[in-house]
Design a protein that fits this description.
heterodimer, A: five-stranded mixed beta sheet, four-stranded mixed beta sheet, 11 strands, B: three-stranded antiparallel beta sheet
Chain lengths: 378, 126
């Protein structure tokens, strides 16, 4: 059994002068103090990677910098799925008595630490070095390919996709830590600059500075506990050229295994935290996970289903699209927000019932998937 | 990664080696075809799949028109259409193509220069 006993999140956007280690440290400090623990009680560290400051041993670099001497530490790299993959590993580590309190941390000064071109270029390297990268694709282009195919097979339109950007922005407006604070409309999304069609600027998450962390513990500490019910992964390919058919992607496989591990059904879920690097990512994953029928997710957005006061509140902090995306920390913010919602600490954003949550992360080009169910215990 | 192994074994050089050709591999053991070159068949593990030259015929699976590129060299080409093509031989590949291609279009390959390198470029089959 494992519990998420503390969470920490910085604001996302510009943190001029902060290094990746600074942002990781800030988030870690917040999470440890949220758990009511002392630094010395952390005996495991899992961290992600930083494209700005790559290192072959980031976890020990961080531990030394932060001032702790864990008995278990290493980095994990699964692209956008890293945060949930680390949480899954931490869950198994504490469950197997390898560690008592595992600190999971991610943070990067991706916005101010390098040029936007450098970010885009670094990320495009997830493509095949011989058969894809020489063609000049970008991450938006990889997802643009997925988008045209998905739109073709399921009758989804660009206006449908725009709804997800508008929803995430609406949610971000209620969170002071979000990168964006101006409301947008479907027309704004449609009129935004083309990036890799059908994806336009407002269909894409921004590049951000920020950090996020949580503590995963063997035993519950706080009054309101958040327990990991079960989780699972699926990895079907790395490169979009080698991806299986849309109906055979990893999200469906991962969520089916996570449901089996948790003993819950989608109908039990009250809060959803779903990876949203692009509007198409969110639309597809919601449908792959069973949170909407094929081609029907946008209609559910329009009907208010995913609003804070809707039947299935989704990414109430604004997601990657509007809270921001600082790399590994990006999707970890989804879990921090889920924890706040589950423990009744989300303030103005508090939803009525977040007793069971489904979280899903995606790395690469829908390559690596992690699904996880959390349960509130009193 | 794949590019590093046994490149001296290339019996048929392709566009990734600067030649105007698309080459794939065919496994004698299981009949599987693969595009990313390896010294074994990724489907069954059998060694030494045979290199074959593709016809250049195919069908568009997906497209994305890149309007924002990340380097000065690629920026000189925008907008350019990144496409996935399902080839007549049964493998999928990434390439460039005419900007007005649609999913399902039957296409034929030629080769164009992109950032000084030869890349496969598809247009509607005549």
């Amino acid at each position: 059994m494992s519990f998420i006993t503390g969470v920490g999140l910085t604001s996302y956007g510009k943190h001029e002068g902060s290094s990746s280690l600074d942002l990781m440290s800030r988030a870690a400090e917040l999470a440890i103090s949220d758990a009511g623990l002392k630094r010395s009680e952390i005996d495991g560290v899992l961290c992600g990677y930083s494209t700005v400051s790559p290192h072959i041993m980031l976890a020990t670099v961080f531990a030394e910098h932060f001032g702790i001497r864990p008995s278990y530490a290493h980095a994990v790299q699964v692209g956008g799925a890293t945060g949930l993959a680390m949480t899954m590993l931490a869950h198994h580590l504490v469950d197997a008595n390898v560690a008592k309190h595992v600190l999971v941390v991610g943070g990067e000064n991706r916005l101010t630490g390098q040029s936007r071109d450098a970010s885009i270029l670094a990320l495009a390297q997830v493509g095949h070095p011989a058969y894809e990268v020489p063609l000049g694709p970008t991450i938006p282009a990889y997802y643009g390919l997925v988008a045209t195919r998905y739109m073709h097979e399921y009758g989804v339109t660009q206006e449908d996709l725009a709804e997800f950007a508008v929803l995430m922005r609406k949610h971000a407006l209620t969170h002071p830590g979000a990168q964006f604070h101006e409301a947008i409309t479907v027309t704004d999304v449609m009129n935004s600059k083309p990036v890799a069609l059908p994806l336009k600027l407002l269909d894409c998450c921004p590049v951000s500075d920020g950090g996020a962390a949580f503590v995963v513990s063997r035993e519950r500490i706080n009054e309101a506990g958040v327990r990991v019910l079960g989780c699972a992964q699926a990895h079907t390919h790395q490169h979009i050229t080698a991806a299986p058919a849309l109906s055979e992607l990893g999200a469906e496989i991962a969520v089916a295994k996570a449901k089996a591990a948790s003993g819950v059904a989608i109908s039990d879920v009250r809060y959803a935290a779903v990876y949203d690097s692009f509007t198409i990512t969110l639309a597809m994953l919601l449908e792959d996970l069973g949170l909407a029928g094929r081609g029907e997710a946008a209609a559910r957005v329009r009907s208010g289903y995913f609003n804070g006061d809707g039947a299935m509140p989704l990414n109430t902090h604004g997601g990657l699209l509007s809270y921001g995306h600082c790399g590994v920390g990006g999707a970890m913010a989804h879990l921090v927000e889920t924890h706040l919602q589950m423990t009744g600490r989300a303030g103005d954003r508090q939803v009525r019932d977040a007793s069971i949550a489904l979280l899903h992360g995606d790395g690469g080009v829908l390559s690596s998937h992690v699904s996880m169910f959390l349960e509130r215990v009193r | 990664m794949s590019g590093e192994q046994a490149l001296q074994d290339w019996t048929l050089p392709d566009w990734t080696r600067g030649e105007a050709a698309i080459v794939y591999q065919c496994c004698a053991a299981c009949g599987g075809v693969q595009y990313f070159r390896r010294s074994f068949c990724a489907a069954c593990g059998a060694p030494d799949p045979a290199d074959r030259r593709a016809s250049g015929e195919g069908t568009v699976y997906a497209t994305s028109l890149v309007c924002r590129a990340a380097t000065p060299e690629t920026r000189a080409h925008v907008p350019y259409n990144i496409i996935l093509v399902d080839t007549a031989e049964g493998f999928r590949m990434m390439a460039h193509g005419d900007n007005d291609l649609a999913i399902g279009d039957k296409v034929t390959a030629r080769f164009e220069l992109f950032t000084g390198r030869l890349v496969p470029y598809f247009a509607k089959a005549k």
